[in-house]
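W.,

You were right to be curious about this one. When I first looked at the sequence I had no strong expectations either way, so I just let the prediction run and decided to look at it fresh. Below is the sequence, 725 residues in total, followed by the output.
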Amino acid sequence: MTPLRPIIFVLSTAALMAQGSPDSTETADTWDYWLDPIVVTATRSERSIFSVPYAVHLIDRDNIQRGEVGLSLGEALSGVPGIVVSNRHNLSQGDRISIRGMGSRAPFGVRGIKIYLDGIPLTMPDGQAQLNNLDLGSTGRIEALLGASSSLYGNAAGGAIHMHTQAAPDAPFQFQPRLMAGSYGLRKWQGKFSGRIGRQSYLVNVNRLVMDGYREHSSARSTAINAVGRRAISDRVQLVTVFNYYDAPYLLNPSSLSRAAADTLPASARFFVRQQGAGKRVRQGQAGITFDYADDHGRQLKVTLHGLSRSLLSVIPGRIIDLERLAGGLRTVFRQDLQVGRWPLRWVLGADVELQRDGRLEFTNQGLSDDQVDQLTTGELFDRLQYGPRELDQDELIYGVGPFTQLEVALGPRWLVTVGERYDRYTFRAIDHFLDDGLDDSGTRVMERFSPMAGIVYRPHEMMKVYGNVSTAFQTPTTTELSNRPGGAGGFNPALKPEHIRSYEAGIKGVWVPGRFSYALAIYHLSIADMLIPYQIQDPETEEVFFRNAGQALNRGGELKLDWSPLGGLGTTLAYTWMDFRFEDFLVETSTGDSVQLAGNAVPGVPPRSLYARLNYEHGSGSYGELSLQWTDRTFANDFNGPAPGSDEPLEDFVNDAYLTVNLRLGLAGQLGRLGFELFLGGNNLLDERYNGSIVPNAFGSRFFEPAPGRNWYGGVQLSYPGAR
């Protein structure tokens, strides 16, 4: 929820402010305006948003937290064109997030997008990100960089999302408890402690979540802690420490359904899924420290050291996976501003070193006895599972190194040219400890790539930029994708190759201050070679997802965002996304042994169009309201875009229909003495639309669909002591 002011709140948390008033002979074009610096850091150094040759969108604290549940990134990113967040309403699998189609086929977690929290990567070296420890209840700012970003981030085909914990209040201590309850057994408690003492600031947020879930076998329970401390050692040096912890004793997975089941019994989960106890148990801790030096001579050095420990029990139909992960790394970036003759230059260079070690054990899942299904308490479920024979026992090691450099040159007051390059080398090594089968599947795979980029920005006006860029990206298979082999062998799949992307983008962004109006338009052309495609084998006793490479795909698209504040306190937002994502060369073999060329087919899981619109209002009394709608186009669920050749199944069984959802947020904030309060109420899917919030591309048995709940409600209260005055 963005608090609208007399001048539109544009592009960041900084407001555009008008100074003075014109006399009767002046026009609006002669007014003087000051724009507080709009700075983004997603480009690896602090830069003005009008100097960046990419599409970049900023989301402020109110849009992230105010009146929201805080369970899905879609709550904050729904108004960003080009980003699709498929809410699976399944905390075991998490949101499926894609940028310009990249990441749309992830079986779980987030793929192809680099995600950071306070400078600490949530994305592992192999390219997979788990967002369990993401704390939206204390997030104050999100930066979304769209497009191929490997010249900055390496294994980042779609872009990068940077999240920053909110700043501490200018007081020694503040306590903010928050209580929330809603439909389907939702209960969430949060306690936030923060303050500023001299040169030190701190914020600690603790939250606990319990929910039954809309569907059968979808309950979840978790406890999370997010802590950030900042210490100004001097005027030039700052230390930032980050720690987060996440513990979920159970996150159950209801799995996907066929079209007939999704239409008639959307809240159901198949008996086989429940008998197999599908879900996850997770415990994770992550920490990091950043040294930040900046002087008055245009020099800045940032060094971040980070580490992670993750324990995961993942139960899927057919298999039980016991994973112990240790990961960490070092991120460095140095910036130098120079003056060469009459040309100002900015030179950035740095390197990322990443390490990941997974101890992976996999067993046949013999599930529960039939008389235990639906009879055990949720906390007992994983302890009663019957383990079958061990199928895999291996260590998986990943070493990644990525030096990069970027040069920004100002060619006069209106032109800015940026060029950069990065070299990445990832070494994947499997050490096979399961030798009972008489085979040693140990092995090493090396994947490396140079990723250059070039971009240009033209500023015809101080509050307008026209830009373009040519860039490349690549995306390695993850350890899960490499180790899941249809034949059941250990080691890594030797045939699976990384994706390679070439991107062309042009756009315009600006603000018309007198009209309190901002706009952003981008068009792009992505060429993808060896695209990673998920599929499931024809086996009713397993739901494992495997991967193969498609020869060539092409994604062309456009993104439009408009913000307008016609009156003080009243604001509107419109975001439109268009994507034409198709195979250009993809030869597959059908179940009958025939080869079929799928060139021209739409890539599954990518909605070709989506529209978001929002009307929000804030009154000086502290009351606020927001009405939003989200329309998503029909989407194909498999590579064939319908039944396979020779099948007589109906087309609608392979298509997720278009849907429209309408959501409402209402709230009242105020002050009682030193106690601040906020009451809020939210309603989702007010029209009670029957729709599927997500699909599983190429699922076996045509079980593509993950139903979303009908009309549902939540409400809560947040207190602040001492409250703001």
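Here's what jumped out at me. Helices lie at 61-65, 74-77, 150-153, 259-264, 271-276, 381-384, 479-483. And, maybe more interesting for your project: Residues 259-264 form the longest helix (6 residues).

Coffee later to discuss?

I.
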